[in-house]
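Page header: ASSEMBLY MODEL / two components / 497 residues total.
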Amino acid sequence: MADQTLRKPSISVTPEKYQALTQQYTPKPTISKNVVRAFIVGGIICSIGQLFINFFITLGMVRVEASTAATATMIFLGALLTGLGVYDEIGKFAGAGSIVPVTGFANSIVAPAMEFRREGYVMGVGAKLFTVAGPVLVYGIATSIVVGFVYFFLH
Amino acid sequence: MNGDDITVNLKRVGNQTVVFDNPPVILSSYSVVGPKEGKGPLGKTFDKVWNDGLHGEKSWEVAESKMLQEAMQGAMNQASVQKEEIDFMLAGDLLNQIISSNFAARQMALPFIGLYGACSTMALSLAVGSMLIDGGFAEKILVGVSSHHDTAERQYRLPTEQGAQRAMSAQWTVTGAGSVLLGRSGEGPRVTSATIGRVIDFAIKDVNNMGAAMAPAVADTILNHCQDMQLKPVDYNLIASGDLGAIGLSLACELLKQSGLDTGTSFTDCGVMIYDESQDSHAGASGCGCSSVVFAGDIMQRIKAGELQKVMLVGSGALHSPTSALQGESIPGIGHAVVIEG
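Prediction written out in full:
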């Protein structure tokens, strides 16, 4: 808080009233539009993944192997599109639809790698690679451990 | 002065304003912008438009520093002033330790005063530069202010290739550098007064709504300026804040209205002027390059053409850092006003 003994701000609106004014003037997030776009683009990305699974099965792989190969292919495509400067445009349009699938995870690793390459391979790429994906990994792995324990004790 | 018999003839008026005895002259101005700004509604008012933000340099940071140098060199060339004639270089930008300005100053090799006022840096530099000249400390001062969309993104937000959606209230950092050459004498518009702002914090914590964080500071500075100078907003042809964006501008208007000051139609914002609706900037522009290029380009040209006689530029800065924001601190805002008369 500012020193109350000094000359007060000249505006005759209190900070509390200003919070309400700010809410009134700030546009609401376009949730319905975002949800529809996320559903469509996320669905398309997952359908492409399914196409790859089917394709790898026709090559003679069993289902688990085909899933792994398809995931690797989608990661490659996500990384490639990030490198070509396309994935951020998809992300701007689709939001969660392109962040949640594994292609989005690839994007969140490749984008910092490209960005911080100029600071060197150790303190740049090495140190900053997980700036975006780091929290997802930390809490994803932590959650999986907790769920694993629960599963272990329940069975 | 507490019984002291030395009388000092202060040029300060009221609480926060200084009025210049010999108003410094704006001898020239020059602006360099990136491609997005070049395509905007003010595209033709800029002296130079780069085709891409990297401009053949090895990093965005080096490019921003080059842009600032180009703007400052351009201002010197336009006034046919040599480096040797300049007493001080005043510059600032948004990056940590103001590196764009520091590295530009290394190349310029002029006595250098680095300034940080976030997006208010242009108005702040003009105010400080004018005080130095009117105070008798300098004959000519070169002012330069820059920001770069990609250097700001990677410092304040996310890597540039990250596929994320921006908030509707977010503003787009301008890639641009503006420079102004101030002189004690000569032909041109004059800086007649300046109001140094106070830091005002109305507890806005959303870093995606910086216009809202800065609006109270801008309103406070305008109120104090008008009170100190015994003037009204209608006494100005143009009051341009830089850069509140659309939300911040509406909020500042509302705050002034509720405080009994009618701004009429003369109040606008550099962050609203520089992009149009189709450029997807959301709430408008930000970055200290914004008010510097709009002032050095459009506003200066309109003053010189006689279209505007009296302009108030109110630079607005959000004085937070990524660290303070993550630690849950609110965003302190500041507004500095300079008055330019043609």
